[in-house]
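Handout, page 2. Input:
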Amino acid sequence: MDINKPGLKLTLTPAAPLVGDEIKAKVEETPAMEAIDFRWDTPANAKVLSESQDTREQTFYAMDTNPIKVTAMGRVPHSGEDLGQATGSITAKPYKINVQVLGPLGPKPQIWKENVGLVDAEGQIATFQNVRLNVTVDPQPKDTVTYNWTLNSGSSFGGGNTGTEVMVQRSDKGTAEATVEVKNSNGVVLGKGQGSFSVSISQDDIQKAKDKDRAEKQKKAALDKLAKAKELYDQGKIEQAIVQAGDAAKDDPANQDIAAYLQKIKADKDKITAQLGKTQNMITAGKMAEAQKEYDVAVAINSKYQPVIDMGKTLADAKAAKAAADKKAAADKAAADKAATDKAAADKAAADKKAAATGKPVTGVPAVPGVTRSTRKS
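Output:
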């Protein structure tokens, strides 16, 4: 027999669900009938949770963001005659998954800047430097959610990969790309988000900058030591100056000015030592004028060098001693000459006296210097 089919209306609530949300499908017939039940056709991307006892309602949740087409088919209980069907379609929206790059951890990498030196690389990230990334879900899910992060090739985690915040680094230059998948407790993917950052400084870049900085500091230290060596040399401290200049040459072997200065002051020391040796030899030989000439050469090189000062005192003492000796020798000679003259005069006077007494001429009496023999009276 013919059966009058009722009008069927299917409603889905809420009208704009999010993926993972429970959705209620409800069918109503007009006019109302007691002898009716419904069979439901629900696609695989909808997980059915429950069905009402009168079969007019079905509850499910969306497992993805693909359209869900639901059909409620009415029938006569037991006999199964078709009473029509109603269809409805709904598409769940994904959650907004926002990944934010919070920035790198630790000190800023340093690079070399000509005429400046080591400087912080503002806004740049180095290899093996951990960078913090954070994920937020909008709106906040009512259910417990899990986070699973994955990275592109060349990037790695600096810790775990299942929290709202992770640390990421790269082993070489390039772009680090992080993807996070958010699921609810039913394993439904609520959405995915991505974040990325660029790594522009390698460890080799950092090491080269450090090496350049070290080299420049060594060059500066070398110049400071050279200045100190010159100061010491001017003070007459030649040995200390040689040590300082030698250290400067080690700090900057390529600096020709330092090498030349070190060679010069070494040569000066050798020349002074040689001149002082010659001076001493002349002093020993009693040649004071020649000693002075040799000494003056040493003085002209560095008059404040202690061995030069000491030799100056030695030469002055030697000159004084020689002058005293010469003076004494002259005095001794004058005294000897005077004694000889006095003796000759005394001898002559005695001889003359004897001759006068005997009436005999005096013979063999030495002449007295400065005295003329007179003719004896008859």
